[in-house]
Amino acid sequence: MRSYILFLFGLLITVEVGAQQVQLKGLFGDSALLEIDGRQRILKSGDKSPEGVTLLEATTSHARINVAGREQKLTLDAPIAASYTKAGKAEVRLSADSLGHYSIDAWVNGMRVPMMVDTGATSISINYPTARRLGLNLNSARKIPISTANGVTSAYLINLSSVTIGGIKLHNVAATVHSDDFPRVVLLGNSFLSRVDMEQQNGVLVLRARH
């Protein structure tokens, strides 16, 4: 069998539970290289490390772990730092790009979707090609008028079954689907942001789960 090896040095994803820190370092078929509290562990799917971290699944694109009873998906290409506060609440920290935008890889109905934080958007805003890729059913969706830079147009109002960012997962999140390729990048609006605690710390945007 051909062995698929994906390896990436450096910190891409961090999960902290209390004082415990877990970093994804590499993926090797059904195994993952994790750094747990500074110690490197190679685990196969189903293995549990001496520190209590269980590798639930490893693929060529992600690892799914269980830490202190909480499940977390880690990927090699998502520049998100996800952690848990001492109170057990999931936390995501985002750094701004050169234009001051906060970009993030979210998971919508289990599929990865790049998004950009937009506090001025009422809901998550999705272009039509992305909606098709996600398999969203618009047949029974309600049409609503929306205002854009090009004038008033219409969009479909739907509910997304789940939206996951780092360790934060929300269900039944409102979204609007445009009938064209606008916006170019999916906008993470207030239908998600209003349901989490949000603050800025020295240029870093911090999102915290409320439950």
TrEMBL record:
Name any Gene Ontology BP term.
Answer: proteolysis
Q: Tell me the domain of life.
A: Bacteria
SUPFAM superfamilies with a match to the protein in the record: Acid proteases
Recall the GO molecular function terms of this protein's record.
Answer: peptidase activity
Residues folding into a coiled coil are: none
Q: Does the keyword Transit peptide apply?
A: no
Keywords linked to the UniProt accession: Hydrolase, Protease
Mind telling me what this protein is named?
TIGR02281 family clan AA aspartic protease
